[in-house]
Design a protein that fits this description.
With 426 residues, the protein is of the alpha/beta class. Among the domains are: 1-31, no CATH class; 71-315, 3-Layer(aba) Sandwich (Aspartate Aminotransferase, domain 2), CATH 3.40.640. Helices cover 39% and strands 16% of the residues. The chain has 15 helices and 16 strands. Strands 4-12-11-10-7-5-6 form a seven-stranded mixed β-sheet, with helices on both faces. Helix 4 (92-105) runs parallel beside helix 11 (300-315) and helix 7 (182-191) packs parallel to helix 8. The radius of gyration is 21 Å and the shape is globular. It starts with a helix and ends with a helix. The relative contact order is 0.16. Homodimer.
């Protein structure tokens, strides 16, 4: 696979953008290949400037659930953009989108922002304002955006970086505990009695690789928060509208006080949201005294793309069962390939999200994820991308399926994975 033009563009970009990218994971620092410079996307395929075609299992980190440039989403944007781009003022599409999100996700109220980071940051500020408490509990390996309060033992690309510039005065109010470990949560509440405003968690982690929470663990979190007057925040920036219309909350039958959204909610455009119970949401300005603002929040173009996406998902509930079938097929056939190759591995999957961990047999938290064979995963990722299967370059990320993927796409993934295993035996 040739990436001559990609390398030329990427090298020139480094002159103007730090590292040549606007988000670190895109730089492929841990791989021995130039990151392809993408020029086009259609369905489950992306194309780079060198003319290479890839089956995309990254999907803008899960955002493109309908596939790239879904016609209904594109048409919705086109209809709006000729007359509306941004006003910093109320529009009708804001109302329509808010109504659709609240009714579909079964929440009382929602506030739109511009990113998942803004959503989680707002949710935590809201929790502190509502409870009058200062501290939050997060879980090692969960990534909630790049605000200082979330970067202690965070997952995603951060797991492979040494961070600087973090304000320790802010971070001291962040308590980190172990995912799926109730004892560590109870200890935090005992040692910080009446000080914890909220517990924030990815109910299905996607930023230490895919690691689902145990149902009894989430149920216990709900009970602990109720007992101590703390809020439970589900970060569904990745899982919101991906696993079901009501997200992970429907799967676990556990109701958080606040939930954050991103990725899918914007139909591929920059968007985030925080939603939840009315008595809490009404604390946001201008109705309350918890401040949040953003000039581009809820702008018509993003709202139209998000509205078209969620409306299409709601009108086609079979999309979720179809993706589950494909996900199960990918998991089953990869299990057979790796088992036949005598590899030690673990595949964690939830619906259309999947991560392969090499060198370990079980991953239930960040500590276990970090014990996986990172070098083997890097070799795997590099091999897959070179053979036109676009996967995350980091072990601590999820792979995704979309409505646009087919059995043939999954079979091609498995075929290249088999070739990778064969190459390792030579």
């Amino acid at each position: 696979m040739r990436l001559d033009k990609s390398k030329e563009i990427f090298d020139k970009t480094k002159r103007y953008i730090p590292g040549g990218v606007n988000s670190p994971i895109r730089a492929f620092k841990n791989l021995n290949i130039t990151p392809p410079v993408i020029s086009k996307g259609r369905g489950c395929f992306i194309f780079d400037v060198d003319g290479n075609k890839y089956i995309d299992f990254v999907l803008s980190w899960g955002a493109m659930i309908l596939g790239h440039c879904d016609p209904d989403v594109v048409n919705s944007i086109k209809e709006v953009v000729v007359e509306q781009i941004a006003f910093g003022a109320p529009t009708e599409i804001e109302y329509k989108m808010a109504k659709l999100v609240c009714e579909t996700a079964q929440i009382d109220m929602v506030r739109f922002v511009n990113s998942g980071t803004e959503a989680t940051m707002t949710a935590v500020r809201l929790a502190k304002g509502y409870t009058g408490k200062k501290k939050i509990v997060k879980f090692a390996g969960c990534y909630h955006g790049h605000h200082d309060i979330f970067l202690k033992e965070a997952g995603s690309a951060i797991a492979e970086l040494k961070l600087k510039g973090i304000d320790e005065d802010i971070v001291q109010n962040t308590i980190v505990v172990e995912y799926n470990n109730l004892d560590s949560v109870e200890k935090a509440f005992t040692e910080n009695k009446d000080e914890i405003a909220a517990v924030i968690i990815e109910p299905i982690a996607g930023n230490m690789g895919v690691v689902p929470a145990k149902k009894e663990f989430l149920q216990a979190l709900r009970e602990i928060c109720n007992l101590h007057g703390s809020l439970l925040i589900f970060d569904e920036v990745i899982t919101g509208f991906r696993l079901s219309l009501k997200g992970a909350r429907a799967i676990y039958n556990v109701e958080p006080d606040l939930v954050t959204f991103g990725k899918i909610i914007g139909g591929g455009l920059p968007c985030g949201a925080v939603g939840g119970k009315k008595e809490i949401m009404q604390c946001l300005a201008p109705q309350g005294n918890v401040f949040q603002a953003g000039t581009m929040s809820g702008n018509p173009i993003v709202m139209s793309a998000g509205y078209a996406t969620i409306k299409k998902l709601k009108e086609n509930p079979h999309f979720y069962s179809n993706m589950e079938i494909l996900g199960e097929k990918l998991e089953r056939e990869l299990t057979q390939v790796f088992s036949n190759s005598n590899l030690t591995f673990c595949i964690n999957r939830m619906g259309s999200m999947l991560t392969i961990f090499f060198g370990v047999e079980k991953v239930e938290n960040f500590k276990m994820a970090k014990m996986s064979d990172l070098d083997l995963f890097r070799s795997f990722a590099e091999y897959m991308i070179k053979n036109h299967i676009y996967v995350p370059s980091s072990q601590f990320e999820a792979m995704f399926l979309s409505v646009a993927h087919s059995e043939n796409d999954v079979e091609r993934f498995v075929e290249i994975a088999q070739e990778f295993c064969s190459s390792k035996r030579k």
